[in-house]
Design goal:
Layout (H helix, E strand, L loop, with lengths): L4 E8 L2 E9 L4 E4 L5 E3 H4 L5 H12 L6 E8 L3 H19 L4 H6 L25
Parallel strand pairs: 3-5
Antiparallel strand pairs: 1-2, 2-5, 3-4
Helix pairs in contact: 2-3
Organism: Ambispora leptoticha
Protein name: Small ribosomal subunit protein uS9m
Family: Belongs to the universal ribosomal protein uS9 family.
């Protein structure tokens, strides 16, 4: 990619999001595994509040209309993908300006949620459910 992009990678459960932050007019595009590009609001059509969640790091600094987002996301469900995108946006913002770190940390946007699905054990129906 060009040098005018700021890249941030976010993960949550099985979801991985690579976020390209570029100076622009505040547009957001999501590219899925099948190569299709959609608008962010069209991608999270079933729950528009997830879009608000994604833009939270940008809204803290009133930058939501100054940067375009290009997101490549795969894996897991919509909620986990939204949280992965939010973490990617936060990490890309840090590359723009390291002074943002204290504010982002106070809103706990820098911590990656490390929880994963527990594996299934032998002889059990699920991870902890007995036969």
């Amino acid at each position: 990619m060009n040098n005018n992009y700021y890249i941030g990678v976010g993960r949550r459960k099985e979801a991985t999001a690579r976020v390209y932050l570029k100076e622009g007019k505040g547009q957001a595009q999501v590219r899925t595994n099948d190569g299709k590009e959609k608008n962010l609001k069209d991608y999270f059509y079933m729950e528009p509040s997830l879009c608000e969640d994604i833009y939270h790091p940008l809204k803290l600094f009133n930058k939501e209309n100054e940067y375009d987002l290009l997101v490549r996301v795969k894996g897991s469900g919509f909620h986990s993908q939204a949280e992965a995108i939010r973490l990617g946006v936060t990490r890309a913002l840090l590359k723009i300006s390291p002074e943002y770190k204290t504010t982002l940390k106070s809103f706990s946007l820098l911590t990656r949620d490390a929880r994963k699905v527990e594996r299934k054990k032998i002889g059990f129906k699920k991870a902890r459910k007995k036969t």
